[in-house]
Amino acid sequence: MEQANLENFKKLEELEELKKAVEKEISSPEAAPPKKEVLEKIIEEKYFPPKTEIENLKPVLTEIEKAKEQYKPLITELIEIAQEEGIEKAVNKARGFSKDNPYLLDAFHDELVDKYFYLLEES
Length: 123
Hints:
Layout: H1 12-26, H2 35-47, H3 51-54, H4 61-70, H5 72-85, H6 87-97, H7 103-122
Helix pairs in contact: 1-2, 2-7, 4-7, 5-6, 5-7, 6-7
């Protein structure tokens, strides 16, 4: 995965919103989960379809890995869309493509969380 760069992000307010949401979650009095897990949960709940829509597509890890490799250029393009136009627009586009391969959505989700987590740690 190529490193994320803050200069590439046109939607910095979206990144700040995610950062605040993560900080709010980990500041709770309960034992806080790792930041990356919190970020993954926030992105999934806010932008990705509910599990009920995709629960019958429970992906096998190897299938997700295949999708990551097969769709690497598309996932890179979707990450750029998320950076420039927002996560919601990128997820909607990914959902359209994932009708042919449901693992694409999972692979995109994983890459998106990795990219945004890196940015949150750097900011």
